[in-house]
Amino acid sequence: MARRRSNRAIVPGSEHGLGILKAQVMRNQGYNVNPERPDLVKYEVARTLGVPLQQGYNGQLSSEDAGKIGGPIGGAMVKELVRMAQQKLAEQRSPH
Predict the structure, then answer these.
(1) How far is CA 41 from CA 5, 37, 63, 73, in A?
(2) pLDDT exceeds 80 at position 7
(3) What is the DSSP letter of 55?
(4) What is the pLDDT of residues 40-70, one digit of tens each?
(5) Cα–Cα distances in Å, from 24 out to 37, 54, 83, 92?
(6) Residue 81: left if φ>0, alpha if ψ -120 to 50, beta else—which one?
(7) Alpha-carbon gap, residue 81 to 40, rounded angstroms
(8) Are 34 and 40 spatial neighbours (Cβ–Cβ below 8 Å)?
(9) Residues 22-47: pLDDT tens digits?
(10) DSSP state letter for 73
(11) Of 13, 14, 33, 30, nearest to 22 (Cα)?
(12) What's the superkingdom here (predicted)?
């Protein structure tokens, strides 16, 4: 039986920081993001891609369409986290 995915962060208390990261990354991607509700950027992403995402139940949405929305958001966040880690490592290696 497949495990159901949760929209909760694995690390307790990290939700706020992830929201800030999402807002920053998606703003840099050119999306209008409400810093108080960065989770709502998915509706703007969906609209720009022509995906009929609505608030509430979206059972009619295909997995492909859902991936078109979540992929760019999560992918951009992962790329930024990798960039930040690489920068931190470079700073630790360089002499002060």
Answers:
(1) 20, 8, 19, 9
(2) no
(3) S
(4) 999 999 999 999 999 999 999 999 999 999 9
(5) 12, 23, 14, 24
(6) alpha
(7) 21
(8) yes
(9) 999 999 999 999 989 999 999 999 99
(10) H
(11) 33
(12) Bacteria
Long-range contacts of 13-18 (CB under 8 A, 24+ apart): 18/77
The enclosing H or E element of 89 equals helix 63-93
pTM for this model (two decimals): 0.79
Q: Which residues contact 32 (CB under 8 A, 6 or more apart)?
A: 44
CB 19, CB 69: distance < 8 Å: no
What type of residue is 43?
Y
Contact in structure between 53 and 43 (CB atoms under 8 Å): yes
With contact defined as beta carbons under 8 Å apart, do 30 and 10 qualify? no
